[in-house]
Amino acid sequence: MDDEGPRHYQYLFTREALDQSHEAAHERAAQTLREQGLRVLQAEPRPLNLKESCNLVAFYAQKLPDLCGLCSAPQEVLWTSLIFFKRFFSANSPMEFDPVTMMFTCLHVACKVEEFRDLTLEKMLQEGGMGEQMRPRVTDLELELLQALDFELLVEPKVRPSLQILAEEEEKWSKVADLEEAIKKAEALVIDVCASTNAILQWPTSVLIAAAWGVVLEEAVAEKASHVCSMLLQSFTEERHKTELKAMFQEAVQAIKQMNCKAELNREAMQEIAKAARKCQKAFDRIREERKQRHEAGLILPSQSLVPREGLSKSNLRD
Questions:
Q1: Do the domain assignments include residue 119?
Q2: Any idea which UniProt keywords this protein has (predicted)?
């Protein structure tokens, strides 16, 4: 981290700002369905409510590590795909984009970014229990993902190398008998908290990694690992930045410790929500197809968005 301040990161939100981003994405999608859903489907689909939308995204975010496990994807690919997924749905609605398809798209793009060539899209679909008909849906969402990420695909720092650095430093202090086992536990904690919560959208990755390391050390030696936070502070000179970083570290530690207190999302309930979402997605698929046809006919610009975004004139984005 540099000395510009702990909050000087893209894709980081306060809790309130993240809620607002989710609400804005939800309202944009719902408005499009209200305006065009009946026209393209002959029966207006029921929009999800905001809680249903957020729960559906959370449910499939927790499935992404399982998919990576089935495909034998390495941890760096899992980490990159998980961050892509979280960032994408921080500003997009599952009514517009299918989270299941986006899981595969994120994993497919992450394999390219991390140069992991052993996992082809064909193998990914096979291991994930999807047929070949899923292929065009996955590839069609690639550009949507890249645009949502603003083509910024480098995901750093990676979890395990960062933990190994912390472990090397820990040898100066440590009463931990097995540092390698501690690294594995901390890595699992980071993945779990980022899959099951929005932690990766609220705190810098370095803070989350350090917080997970601190939690593991506390469990191992039954004492506060305050020196872990001290290592983070070494990069900062201004006191206000140090104060803010300490607060973020403590918040991240609490988020990790409270993970097991979160209620599990009911599978049957999520399947019902997903069923309703698919009707919404079908409407957006048809709207996108119309848009593609108009683009090919030279009637709209390729850069125009399907749903109005803030700062753009809605009148310029309609039929």
A1: yes
A2: Coiled coil
